[in-house]
C-alpha cells in the first residue's frame, strides 16, 4: 500500500470516528443541527475575553502610572526602548539587529542625558519668558511679590509639602520657599533646575542646592537626612510652651515698639511674618500704628502714597530725619529722599538700576540709604554709621553705579575695600546683582586675578570697579600690577576695622595710590569710635557725618541674653545644655582664637551636632564651601573667629553665641549683628540690673584688653592627666624641632651662608614687623596719616 493510501485510510477512519463520537454526543448533534448556538457561545467567550483584556490594560496602565511616579528615569528609558525598538524590529531590521541595537543604545543615552535635558530646559525658559517673568538672561523681569511664584508669576498660595486649593478651587502646586526667601511652585523650580544644571535661585543668583532641598528647601532643613540632629535641636514640649508664651508677650510688647523695630519701614505683613501673629492682632497693631502716627503731629503729611517726600522748608527736612532716626553733621548737607521712585524722578537714576531694585524686592530705602545716597551723588566725602544689617552696602553701591554711568575702558574708577575676603565676595555678588543690564566689568582681586593683570596689563583697562582686601591690593600696588590713578570713588567698608592698627599702614598706602584729584572717600561701618573718626577727619575733605540710630550701639531688634557659667569649664556645659533644650539652627558661635575654635569644634563634633569651624588657617576653598553650606543650611552650627564677625549677611541666623566675650564693644556689636538683619528678630535684653550698674572699665584697661586677649583655659572635657600628657608630647616635638633648626644653622655656618641667609631673612621679616609696629604706634600718637614723603623720612631715620 502506498503512503497516500495509508494516509487516506487514516483520515477516513478518524473522520468516521469523530462522526461516531459526534453522533453519540447529543449536544454535538444539536450544534450540528443549529450552528447559531455555537456562535452564541463564542460571543459570550469574546465578551469575557474583552473584559479580561480591558481589566488587564487598566491594571497595566495603573502599574505604569505607579512606576512613572516612583521612578521616572527607568520608566522613560523603557518607554523610549519600546518606542524605538519594536517598530524597527518589525520593519525588517532582523538581519542587522545587533548593530542597530548598539547604535540605538548610544543614541538613547545621548538623547536622555543631553538632548532631552536641553530640550526641556529650552521649553522651561521659553515658558517663563513668554509669561514675561524673566528675560533671556535668566533674570526675573517683573517685580516679585510675596505669594507669587518667581518663575511663572502665578499665585503661589500653597505651603511647602502641601497641595492646597486656592480661592477659585483650583489645585495649586506645592510651593517652596528657598533659604533666600523666594517662593516657587514645585514644578517651576524643578523645571528651572532641571537635572541640576541651573542650581541657583533664578531670582538672586545665589547658589542653592535645589536637589538637596527638593522636599524641604532652604532654611527648612532636610529632616529625614538629619533626623538624629533634629532630636538634638527640636525644642522639648516644655521649652516650646515657654516659647509660645514668649511670642505672645513679644507681640504685645511690639505694639509700642513697632516703629523702632521696623527700621526698613516695609510692610505690615513683614511685621506679621517676623512675629507670626494673627489677622485680628494685625488689625490691632495697624490701628495702634496709625494712632501713633497721628499723635506724632502729622509728620506723615510730607510723604505721599509712594513714600515720596516734598520738603517745603528746612523744618520738614529736620522732621523727616528725626522720624527716620538720622543725624547729620557737616556743612551744606543734601536732603534725604523717601522712596526709590524718587531716584528715577528726582535724581535721574538709570532705569536699569530702578528695575533691578524692583526685581530684587527693595521696596523702600532704609534710613542710611535715604541720606547717604544723595550725599554721595553730590560728590561729598562721607562718614556713615548705621546699625548692622541696615543696608549700608546698597547705600554705596547705588551712587557708584549711578556715577559710573556705563562701562568705559579707562581702568578702575571705583574701589571698595573690605577687611575680609568673604565680605569682599559678598559685596562683589551684590554689585553684580545691581548692575544687571549694564555690562560693567567688576574685578574681585584675588591671587589669580592679580597674576592675570600682571601678565596682561592691557586687561586692567577693561575693568570699572575693583573690590579687594587691603593686603592683596597693597601687594598688587607694590608689584605695580594695578593702576588706581583713575579711581573716583573709594569706599572703606567696615571702616573702623580698616583704620585700626593692623590695617592702617595698608589703608594709608592705598590712599596714596589713589591719586585722582576728584577722589571721593566714603567710610561705612556700624561702629566708628571717636578716635577713628578724628583720624579719618584728617584725610577727608569737608566730610559729612551720618549717624542712624544710637551711636556705637547694637541693633535694637536683637534679643540679648546672658548665661552664667561660672568657670571656663561651665561654658561647655552650658552650650551642651542649650543644645539639649533645643536650639533653632543656624547658630553662629564666636570664640577668641583659632586654637579655641578648633578645640570647641572637636568637643562639639563628637556630640553628633552638624557643626563646622571657620578661621583663617583653613584654605580658601574650604572657607568658601563652609560659607556656602552655612547659607544653604547644610551646616547648622558654625564656630568662627573674628573673621566672620563683620559684614557677613547670613539672612536666617537665629542665634549668635559669644562663647568667649569679645575684646571690644565694637566687636560685640558686629558679632551679634550677624542675626536680626534687615529688620528681623525682636528686641529685649535680659542683662541683669546689677550688671548694668557696674562701673565702666577704665580707658587703660580697655586698651590693654584690645591689645592682648584674656588668657583662657583650653576648651576640653579631657582629664588633666590626658592634657598634661598631650602638653608633654607637644614640648618634646617643639624641642626636637628646635634641635633640628640649630643643627641646620651650624651646618650652614660651616659650609657657607645658605641657611644663615634664610635665618637672616626670617629675622628681617621680624624686624619689618616690629618696624611696622613702631610706625603704627607713631601714627596712632600723631592721630594722622603721614604723607608718602613723611613715611619715607621715617623709614630713612629707622
Ligand atoms: N532697602 C532695603 N529693603 C529691604 N532689604 C534691604 C534693603 N537694603 C538692604 N537690604 C537687605 O538687608 C540685608 C543687610 O544688608 P547689608 O549687608 O548691606 O547690611 P550692613 O548694614 O552692611 O550690615 P553690616 O554692618 O553687618 O555689614 C541684606 O540682605 C540686604 O539685601
Automatic annotation (TrEMBL):
Entry's Gene Ontology BP terms: anaphase-promoting complex-dependent catabolic process; cell division; maturation of SSU-rRNA
Transmembrane segments: 47-67, 74-91
SMART domains (alphabetical): DEXDc (SM00487), HELICc (SM00490), RING (SM00184)
Database matches in Gene3D superfamilies: P-loop containing nucleotide triphosphate hydrolases (3.40.50.300), Zinc/RING finger domain, C3HC4 (zinc finger) (3.30.40.10)
Catalyses which reaction(s): ATP + H2O = ADP + phosphate + H(+)
Basic and acidic residues composition bias: residue spans: 751-781
Record keywords: ATP-binding, Cell cycle, Cell division, Helicase, Hydrolase, Membrane, Metal-binding, Mitosis, Nucleotide-binding, RNA-binding, Transmembrane, Transmembrane helix, Zinc, Zinc-finger
Polar residues bias spans: 1-16
Domain Helicase ATP-binding residues, every copy: 373-546
E.C. no: 3.6.4.13
InterPro entries xrefs: DDX52/Rok1_DEADc (IPR044764), DEAD/DEAH_box_helicase_dom (IPR011545), DEAD_box_RNA_helicase (IPR050079), Helicase_ATP-bd (IPR014001), Helicase_C-like (IPR001650), P-loop_NTPase (IPR027417), RING-H2_APC11 (IPR024991), RNA-helicase_DEAD-box_CS (IPR000629)
Domain (RING-type) ranges: 149-205
Record region (Disordered): 1-21, 289-311, 698-721, 735-798
Domain Helicase C-terminal: 557-716
Pfam families in alphabetical order: DEAD, Helicase_C, zf-ANAPC11
Sample GO molecular function, one term: hydrolase activity
GO CC entries: anaphase-promoting complex; cytosol
Comp. bias regions, Low complexity: 298-308
Positions with biased composition (Basic residues): 788-798
Entry-linked PANTHER family: ATP-DEPENDENT RNA HELICASE RHLE-RELATED, RNA HELICASE
Family: Belongs to the DEAD box helicase family. DDX52/ROK1 subfamily.
Protein name: Anaphase-promoting complex subunit 11
